[in-house]
């Protein structure tokens, strides 16, 4: 079994065939699909979607790219939604949260306000976090240390070895996806090849970050076995072993995933 630890299956790109996409992933051997929220506007959507197919799971959070439209009281709304979800076996953690210093025009203070507020909630409920770390690896890890968060995933990791080690030392796992299938993505491929295997999980970020064989097309969770095979090739391990180990890693990063088949 494979686990897609990060998939925006609620995105409009899937409106025409969402059920087929989920079924195709299951047929391909993807046993769990984690759907992170991006803000109050889709808290209910990701919850309902995760309950609509076998193996669905969800996280709740405010994405840094959506902080311009977020309101201060969204943190209280998020806390209430999380508290109400604690008995839901499909709920796995807080995400997608973090910081983004790649996109121009985002207010840093606003991003930090929501990031730190959500880390406080994660600490309060002892929940793992799924972090957006684009061009912000050092700043995100500072927040994790400050709030003593020791479990979760640094999604779409693309930092240095030193930064990777900082996340691993903090207890975090690192998400790798379609980028590792491109020969030109040398740094990502080196990281995927050389970092401790126990720190790695696989993801699609669908509909984004497609692997090389569907370049510039819509990504989907059924691509996870191919991405996993790419990881196996880089590391010189059997595909079946890679599936088993990345699944175990995902369960360590997001322990409530073990409940999500309920």
Give a quick set of tags describing it.
about 260 residues; alpha/beta; TIM Barrel; eight-stranded parallel beta sheet; 9 helices; globular
Written description of the protein model:
- The mean pLDDT is 97.
- The chain has a single domain (2-259), classed as TIM Barrel (Alpha-Beta Barrel), CATH 3.20.20.140.
- The protein is globular and about 45 Å long.
- It has helices spanning 18-27, 43-50, 74-85, 108-125, 137-146, 161-169, 186-194, 224-235, 239-253, and strands at 2-4, 30-36, 56-60, 91-98, 129-132, 152-155, 172-176, 200-202.
- It has nine helices and eight strands.
- Helix 3 (74-85) packs parallel to helix 4 (108-125) and helix 8 (224-235) packs across helix 9 (239-253).
- 39% of the residues lie in helices and 15% in strands.
- The protein is an alpha/beta fold and 262 residues long.
- The protein has an eight-stranded parallel β-sheet.
Query: How is the largest sheet built, in terms of strand order?
Result: 1-2-3-4-5-6-7-8
CATH level 3 topology: TIM Barrel
- Mean pLDDT, nearest integer? 97
Helix/strand-derived category reads alpha/beta
Helix count from the secondary structure assignment: 9
């Amino acid at each position: 079994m494979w686990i897609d630890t990060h998939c925006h299956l609620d995105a409009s790109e899937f409106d025409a065939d969402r059920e087929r996409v989920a079924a195709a992933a299951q047929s391909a051997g993807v046993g769990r699909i984690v759907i992170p929220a991006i803000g109050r506007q889709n808290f209910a959507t990701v919850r309902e979607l995760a309950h609509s197919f076998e193996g669905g799971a969800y996280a709740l959070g405010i994405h840094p790219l959506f902080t311009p439209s977020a309101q201060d009281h969204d943190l209280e709304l998020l806390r209430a939604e999380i508290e109400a979800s604690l008995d839901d076996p499909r709920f796995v953690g807080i995400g997608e949260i973090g910081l983004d210093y790649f996109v121009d025009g985002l207010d840093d203070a606003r991003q930090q306000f929501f990031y730190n507020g959500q880390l406080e909630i994660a600490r309060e409920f002892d929940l793992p976090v799924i972090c957006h770390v684009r061009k912000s690896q050092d700043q995100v890890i500072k927040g994790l240390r400050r709030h003593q968060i020791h479990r979760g995933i640094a999604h779409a990791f693309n930092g240095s070895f030193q930064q990777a080690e900082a996340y691993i030392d903090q207890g975090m796992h690192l998400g790798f996806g379609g980028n590792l299938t491109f020969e030109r993505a040398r740094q990502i491929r080196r990281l995927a090849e050389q970092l401790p295997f126990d720190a790695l999980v696989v993801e699609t970020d669908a509909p984004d970050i497609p692997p090389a064989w569907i370049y510039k097309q819509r990504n989907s969770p059924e691509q996870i076995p191919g991405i996993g095979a790419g990881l196996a090739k880089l590391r010189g391990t059997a595909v079946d072993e890679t599936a088993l180990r990345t699944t175990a890693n995902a369960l360590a990063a997001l322990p409530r995933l073990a409940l999500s088949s309920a």
